[in-house]
């Protein structure tokens, strides 16, 4: 990978996002990215391996949520990145705020092992968790304990809601990456929102260079305690969405 600090900087500056990152955070993002793509040679962590694709679909796509996350939760906050895969958007949220604690959750142990290695030396308040959101949502140490949850390309909206809302404290936020076409899922998610005590409070549009399809950061606020029946057992939310 030939991606440089300067190219990271140019990409963020072109999108008006460079000021959202501490000056010393970009070298760590470059380091993380290089190590992650080395791991990708033996593990299927990402299909975006060319410099410009990586910048567009991982770094920049994640970075659009940085100002939003700061506005939603301006102080130190605990975040979870659902189905983190190769670590995005979670690592970008961690890099952008030295006080933000970010847990990277994935069910595949080989992926979290690779992420552990990539996180070495970054200085971020980030850690990996191996497991399923359904199990974590029933863990007394994690249930209703988080300030924020991020979800990018995880599942349809009703399913993401059942994964995320049990983990959030009342007043916490889910930020879900969606295409404009996927906003039609809002209609089918109304039952899940009512059942799980959430409401959609923001839709933040953005676009990626070279792509015509608009994208949206959908923000859901947790309004009240999650009923004890949720989340349901592993696999049930995706097989029988609310």
Protein model, in words:
This protein has 242 residues and is α/β, with parallel strands linked by helices. The protein is 37% helix and 21% strand. It is built from eleven helices and seven strands. The protein has a seven-stranded mixed β-sheet with strand order 3-2-1-4-5-7-6, with helices on both faces. Helix 2 packs antiparallel against helix 6 and helix 8 packs parallel to helix 10. The longest helix is centred in the first third of the chain and has 15 residues.
Describe the secondary-structure layout:
Layout: H1 5-14, H2 25-39, H3 51-63, H4 66-72, E1 78-82, H5 90-96, E2 101-106, H6 109-119, E3 126-130, H7 133-136, E4 146-152, H8 157-164, E5 168-179, H9 185-188, H10 190-196, E6 198-206, E7 215-222, H11 236-239
Order of helices and strands: HHHHEHEHEHEHEHHEEH
Average pLDDT? 92
The helix/strand class is alpha/beta
Largest sheet: 7 strands, mixed
Low-confidence spans: pLDDT under 50, at least 5 residues? Answer: none
Strand content: 15-25%
Radius of gyration, CA atoms, in whole angstroms:
17 Å
């Amino acid at each position: 990978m030939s991606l440089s600090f300067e190219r990271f900087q140019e990409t963020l500056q072109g999108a008006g996002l460079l000021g959202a990152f501490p000056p010393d955070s970009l070298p760590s993002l470059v380091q993380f990215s290089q190590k992650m793509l080395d791991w990708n040679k033996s593990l299927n962590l990402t299909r975006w391996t060319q410099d410009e694709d990586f910048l567009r679909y991982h770094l920049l796509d994640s970075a659009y949520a940085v100002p939003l996350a700061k506005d939603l939760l301006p102080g130190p906050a605990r975040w979870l990145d659902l189905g983190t895969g190769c670590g995005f958007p979670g690592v970008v949220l961690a890099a952008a705020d030295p006080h933000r604690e970010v847990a990277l959750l994935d069910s595949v142990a080989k992926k979290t092992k690779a992420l552990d290695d990539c996180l070495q030396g970054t200085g971020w308040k980030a850690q990996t968790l191996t497991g399923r959101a359904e199990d974590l949502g029933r863990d007394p140490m994690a249930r209703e304990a988080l300030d924020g949850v991020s979800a990018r390309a995880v599942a349809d909206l009703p399913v993401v809601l059942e994964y995320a809302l049990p983990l959030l404290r009342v007043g916490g936020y889910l930020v879900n990456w969606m295409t404009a076409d996927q906003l039609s899922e809002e209609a089918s998610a109304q039952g899940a929102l009512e059942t799980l005590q959430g409401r959609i409070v923001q839709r933040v549009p953005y676009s990626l260079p070279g792509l015509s399809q608009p994208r949206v950061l959908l923000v859901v606020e947790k309004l009240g305690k999650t009923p004890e029946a949720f989340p349901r057992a592993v696999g049930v939310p995706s097989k029988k969405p609310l």
